[in-house]
């Protein structure tokens, strides 16, 4: 186990990490392109300006992790270990990420791009999408109880195929909930 270490300007591309457990570590400006994170556990770790392109995530664990300005295109959360998952994301590029069949309850996304991300059969209850772009994101059989979409944009969510109990929206976002009805809405 590696504890309380700073990893800065490291290129780990196409390699394996030196340990399977990291606790309270900070990774700044690290390149993890094509890294195999299988079975690796990150507890209370911070990732700043890191590149996670094409990483392998089989049973990877993130507990109390924070990601800031990270490139996480196509990140397969559905392959991660869901036990005790908790993370925050700020100014991250999470386009085409897969959250299918995964629970990310109470996760906070702030100023993130989630274009084309998949939330099929996911539990996103109490998640906050603060100023996030959800264009072409897929919500199907998603549980979104008390989820905050008030400052999110470009989402299309069918209330008949998702659980939206007490989810928060602003009136400007209502067209994204009514798309399937092909209504001509005016202001």
TrEMBL record:
Q: State what protein this is by name.
A: Uncharacterized protein YjbI with pentapeptide repeats
PANTHER family documented for this protein: ANTIBIOTIC RESISTANCE PROTEIN MCBG (PTHR42999), PENTAPEPTIDE REPEAT-CONTAINING PROTEIN (PTHR42999:SF1)
Protein species of origin: Aquimarina intermedia
Recorded hits in Pfam families, A to Z, give: Pentapeptide (PF00805), Pentapeptide_4 (PF13599)
